[in-house]
Automatic annotation (TrEMBL):
Entry-linked PANTHER family: SLR1927 PROTEIN, SLR1927 PROTEIN-RELATED
The name this protein goes by in its record: DUF58 domain-containing protein
Pfam assignment, any one: DUF58
Residues covered by the DUF58 domain: 204-272
Amino acid sequence: MRLQPTLRGWALGATGLVLVLLGIGAGSRDLVRIGAVALVVVAAAAGLVAWLDAGGTRRPLGVRRVVTPNPVHAGERVGVEVHITSSDPSGRARLAGLKFAEQAATELSAGRPLRARVHRSPGSVVVSYGVQTARRGRWPLGPLVVTRTDLFGTPASTTTLGEQAEVTVWPTVVPLPAPTDVLVGEPDRVALGARSPSTDDASLRDYREGDDLRRVHWRSSARRGELLVRSDERAGMRPVSVLLDLPYRGTHLEWTISLAASIALAMLDAGHPVRLLDGVGAHSTTTGVPFLHTRHDGARAALLDRTVDLEAPRTSNEAQARLVAGAHLLESTEAGGEIVLGVLGPLGAGARSALAHVADTAQGWAVVRSDPQQTGGQRDARATVDALQRAGWRACEAAPGEPLPDCWLRLLGSAR
């Protein structure tokens, strides 16, 4: 708690002190009495406000914050309700007369004060307001700031109630078509044994980190000497790896992440196992990144959660190192038969070489950023597209900021 006099309190206290000193100097008991009364009023008011402190350890008030929806996509509005309750009479007395203010990150409040509605009832107060999410990330909300003054407004106490909440903001995504007849051609589907799903359509595959141990086929694992798990995925639905090359300047970071997330969700909704690779942290482990499946509850949310903490590389060398690490991960986890969908920038020689090897075992598709405002941006992007196409990739250029469906349909059209 922070207790301090208000401007009125300072004025009243100073006036009382002056009157006491004048009364003593002039020998006037009346002036001394008046000045003493003013000082007593200020002191008593401060004591009362301190006793009614809302955040005191003596039967503290309960605070519960409800954020809906959470997580949320960037650009969407979030409703917040803060419930302050007390079940004992002293707590109800402390609730009366409180003023409330909520704290929020700039990415939620746009730097402006939050405008809230306060609904009071016996033993409880509900503070409700809305915030507009501006950018992808994890942003703090709260704690609640409460202010109390006495009847005369001489002292004011300020304290905080409750803990901080966190609002998780996913990137903006748009629905994209997933024409599997283009991504997986008819000869591929025949080779993979594509057919209608069946309850008996079960096969075995190598164990990947994150797989449920209950799906391990122990008899076959013992025979082969390595873990195998049952897979009831529909045959012909190739696994998809979305490879991210984040711009190191950060200018087109959100557009790049939004495009990659939209592509990943489109393939996930089409029934493909999907994973997101950016070559950083846990995503670059040698044990591989587990695929997400629509048959698992929360697969979409788990995929979007992986985009929340993505950060731009600090230099072009770091950006290339990340991409090379992601390409090596594809090779180390036996990406044969996969579809690799890349959202890339203009590449250096090392990254081009790494991605060329990916096309030896996987089917590669790539959208390459072409920034017309950057010197040589279009030329470098064109050179990257040509290099990828020579290596067996399907690739096209895209200008950052253009509609995401246009980029996606242009990529699919490159196969015709």
